[in-house]
Structure formats: C-alpha cells, structure tokens
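I have been asked to look over a protein record a colleague put together. Alongside the sequence sits a line of tokens, each denoting a local backbone shape. Please read both lines and tell me whether the tokens look consistent with the sequence. Take the sequence as given and treat only the tokens as open to question. I have pasted the whole thing underneath without changing anything:
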Amino acid sequence: MNSIAASSSHASVPRPWAAWLNVPVYLALWSLPGLAALSFYYLNQTVTAAPLNWSFALVSTLPNWYIWALLMPVMVKIMRAKPLDGDNWVRVLLSIHIPVLLASMLVHSMANLLLFRATGIHDTMNVDLYKVHFFSRVHGNIFTYAAILGLVTAYDYYRKFVSRETHAATLEVQLAQANLRALKMQIHPHFLFNTLHSIAALVRKSENKLAVNMLGQLGDFLRLALENKGQQEIPVEEEIDFLRRYLDIERVRFGDRLAVSIVIDPDVRACFVPNLILQPIVENAIHHGIAPQTTEGRISVTVSGEGDSVCMSVRDNGPGLKDPDRLQKGVGVANTQERLENLYGSNQEFSLRNADLGGLEVRICIPRCDTPVIQLQTGAS
C-alpha cells in the first residue's frame, strides 16, 4: 500500500563514514597507522644499527594504508549489503567476506608492487616479487580487513539501536498525545455538562434506572480512559469496546438524532490496531458532521479484513468538506498520519474523502498482525 501520509521527521543518524567527504581528514586518519609503521621502522633500524633507507621506508609504510583507504568504500558497501547478522553469518562469511578479503589482498599486493616499480625500488616485476608482497603482508591485511568489518558491524548495530530507541520514543510521545487528546475530550466541561444534564433529565422524568445505567457507563468510560496502560497497539475488539462506551454516552446527548452502526469482521477481532486510533476520528465526525444538523445523523464504523490488511472506515452523513485537503493538513489528521507512518512505514494507508452519497469518509488500512508490530520489530532487530 502506498502511504499518502505526510513525511514524518525522524531523528537523523549521522552517516558512519562521513569523513569520506572530507578528504584531508580521511587521509589523516589512514596516515596514523602508516606513521606508526614508519616509527617502528626507524626504531628497529636504530636499535639494530642498520642503515636507514628513507625511500624504502616511505614507500612501504604510508602508501600501504592509503591503498586500504581507496579500497575501503567498496568493502563497506559489500559489508553493508551482506552483514554478519542472523543465523546465516557463517554462510555469508564463507561465501562473501572471505572472497572479498582475498580479492582485496590481491589488489593491495599488486598496487604495492606497481608502486615499488614506479619509484625504482624494484627494477622488474615478476611472480616471485608478487608473492613476496602478498605473503609478507598477509597477516596485517587479514587483521585490517577484520578490523574494518568489525567497526562497520559494530557501528551499524549502534545505529540500529539508536534508531530503534528514537523510533520507540517518538511512538511513546505520539501515544501520550493521543491519550492527552482523548482525556481532554473526556473531561471537557461541555462533554461532562451535556452528559450529566442528560442524566439529570432522565432523573426528572423518573427514568431512574436508565439514569443509573448512564452514570455507570460514564464511570466505566472514564475508568478505561484513566487506566490506559500506554500500549501502542491493542486488539480490534478492545478498541471497538472503548469506542462503544464513548458512543453510548454520546447517544444520551443526541438521543434519536444519532444512529450508530458498527460492523466488525469476526476474522479480525484479535488483530492489533493502534490504541485510540478510532475515537478521535469518530469524535470529529460527531462534532463536525452530526452536531450542526437538525436531522438524524448517522455514524457508520466498519472494520474488515482485506487480504493481508485490516481496514477501518468511519463514515458520517454530514455535509462533508468543501476542501478535504484543508482538514488533511490539520494537526489532528497530521498526527494520526505521522503515527501510522512511524508504526507501519509505507505499509499503511490513510485517506479522507467526501463519500459518494454525502458525508465524510475516513479510511485507514494497516498490516494484518496477530502480534503488536512493535514486538515484531523488536524481535527482528
């Protein structure tokens, strides 16, 4: 499914090898092991009283690491494409990384041989010289490749961890905002006043049993709202149960002016949906589509399975919108869109349109899951 949600702003994680864009810094980093090797050569020659050959020293130390600097971007791309994670790391190591290591060592040895020939240290180029360059550096080259692989793997795990933590924190903030909006609606003076006024009217009519039932519904509704455990996703039947309690109270206010139809596909009752995703949408439908009318208002809520998706729609018979795009840019709709995108990425759909028979229809489609998607993401990471 293609998302029409606005692109959310995620905390950006810096690219691990951004120093590539800064050539002096990148070369300076790779110069450090070369300078260390040059210092070791100087100390060794000094201690053994051997003559110093600075041409040989410079050609055999610093360029050795600059060759790795040139090879590293290609190796990192391969390491990222075939990471050592999951249960197949042995197969990836044997089939990908060992061949890449051997190829890197062959190229590295050939580059060194050409450099020695170009600087006049070698007069000729032959197989024996190539073997010398290959085998004299084999241990150091294996260590270098392993160090690069380890650093890339460690950084990518760290980046995934930071991204996952940032993602989870964003979802927690969005859920808190949804809870706050719902709670503000629930304890809004007009909401409570109208509800209590309707209950008082029942008492004046001596319909005490119905009034007591309404008080119980209000108490249960507020209890469920205040006892919300902060879960990102809940089963469809729990979301609908909470919605029904809200609508039962609204029906007291509107009486015969509000007709509600809720249809749920039995196959999706246990599927998980975002917590408090439907109530704000229904609230908007009542506030903008039903309340301004003097005739009967109808709210239709449908939850059904469509292939690998769970689709939820809320439709009213109000006047609709003269400019649907204007509402689609509103804070409430934008928050819902961003929350869906953070939970499901591009594998979700949010649409808002004027229905063919009048009124407004809001439709949400998300992946069909019997387990919270956050739990699946955590398990997969």
